[in-house]
Write a structure and sequence with these properties.
With 299 residues, the chain is α+β, with helices and mostly antiparallel strands. It is built from eight helices and ten strands. The chain folds into two domains: 140 residues, Butyryl-CoA Dehydrogenase, subunit A, domain 2, CATH 2.40.110.10; 145 residues, Butyryl-CoA Dehydrogenase, subunit A, domain 3 (Up-down Bundle), CATH 1.20.140.10. It starts with a helix and ends with a helix.
């Protein structure tokens, strides 16, 4: 399904909802799960990850937004950046630091909540993205998902699940770009023959098709690992690295094969290119996942 949603560029928060719901199901106390998961299932609650801060690092240990302990919970102050679908979400799943520097994963109510200011960003993805400014936002103890090392573990797993999801979507996106390029070059004629008959164009399309297949295989392998007992950090990193590097490059090659029309707003190709450029940064860029892969390999 994610592959087809990527192929159609569907602007839906399904990945955001799925990875946060999975994190709650695996790490949250029973009281939190029984309160939120049924409401997520029927669409009354939408939770989106809010993990990035000023440094835009996907390292789970880099969170610095402060949480001050009170008698009934926490007061959260700080900023979370590049939060997808924040304007539609009822809650944000975010990692903070308490007064004793302990990492704490919280479900923060953000829908019309006091102390929450959303700043919409003009983002290349084409979907709503915001920065969340939190000023002494009250969060009850009942919203705590995990603390300490368990909070870091849960956050890392969420990022890994998100990375695999984006890799699958990028695989679908790449497939459609290859198909549309083959169709265009088969019909567009120059010098009395289809431009797809020229060897240089054929070479371009062959490289595009190989790249799309490589990403597809790696993404499916990584997704399959999540259906087993646990998941493969190495497969997830490999899939996201390949998707990050090959699919945007594939899109640029498609622009060359389309010629001038491929660089116009009237043609849909630019929509795929912008989304590929946005998704390559979501849930970790290539440098982040290469470091993760090296760690998984013991290097």
């Amino acid at each position: 399904m994610l592959e087809e949603l990527g192929a159609s560029l569907t602007p839906t928060p399904i990945v955001e909802s799925a990875v946060t719901s999975r994190t709650l199901e695996r790490y949250a106390p029973d009281a939190v799960k029984s309160e939120l998961l049924p409401q997520i299932a029927v669409g009354h609650v939408l939770i989106t990850p809010a993990l990035l801060e000023r440094e835009a690092s996907w390292d789970a240990t880099s969170a610095r937004v402060a949480a001050t302990r009170t008698d009934s919970g926490f007061l959260i102050t700080g900023e979370k950046r590049f939060v997808s679908f924040a304007d539609l979400a009822t809650h944000a799943l975010t990692l903070v630091r308490t007064g004793d520097d302990e990492p704490t994963l919280l479900v923060v109510p953000i829908w019309k909540a006091r102390g929450v200011d959303q700043i919409s960003l003009d983002h290349v993805s084409g979907v709503p993205v915001s920065s969340l400014s939190l000023s002494e936002v009250e969060v009850p103890l009942s919203c705590v998902v995990a603390t300490g090392a368990r909070a870091i573990e849960a956050t890392r797993e969420l990022i890994t699940a998100g990375a695999v999801s984006r890799a699958v979507q990028l695989a679908g996106l790449g497939r459609v770009v290859v198909e549309s390029t083959v169709e265009y070059t088969s019909n567009r004629e120059q010098f009395g023959q289809p431009v797809g008959s020229f060897q240089a164009v054929q070479h371009h399309i062959a490289e595009m098709a190989i790249a799309a297949k490589q990403v597809n295989h790696l993404a499916h392998s990584a997704a399959w690992s999540f259906s087993r007992n646990g998941y493969s950090i190495a497969r997830a990193a490999q899939a996201k690295i390949a998707a990050n590097e090959k699919i945007p490059s594939l899109c640029w090659t498609a622009h060359q094969c389309h010629g001038a029309v491929g660089f116009t707003q009237e043609h849909d190709l630019h929509l795929y290119t912008w989304r590929a450029l946005a998704w390559k940064m979501d849930y970790g860029d290539s440098a982040f996942h290469k470091a993760t892969l090296a760690g998984a390999m013991g290097l």
